User: Fold Tetraspanin-7 from Fulmarus glacialis.
Amino acid sequence: YAMLLSLIFLIVLVAAVVGFVFRHEIKTSFESNLNLALRDYNVTADWHSDAVDTIQRTLHCCGVQNYSDWEKTDYFTQRGIPRSCCKSQDDRSEEDLKDPSKAKLKVFVDGCFFLVTSTMESKMSIVAGISFGIACFQLVGIILACCLSQYITNNQYEMV
Assistant:
């Protein structure tokens, strides 16, 4: 049991170190994947499009860097900026969303990449605290399992 807990502890420790060391690569990968999701938006109506809509609605953002990122997509030429970018769900005519100057007044202008990364970084202290607490419990479990094993091997543990 102590060996299993030690193995899990080491895996979590390695994952945390790798995540910290490669955090810039993770950001770059997220940005490129978000750009790909915008490019392929609503082509296949898959979960990537739903994820982009959810991010834009939840964080009140639009595009990767800003709302003008949508102008480079095929979706924009067909339907304009997606409705998930709109500030008001009542006022979102398709012709206004096809015109970037009019759309600027009706959609969120901030990009999603900065908002997602800043939200993740602000929550990182909470994640680190919870992880540290779990690691402490794992270490206590490892110590107690080793003590129990030692008592059993020394025949100091009384059988019931």
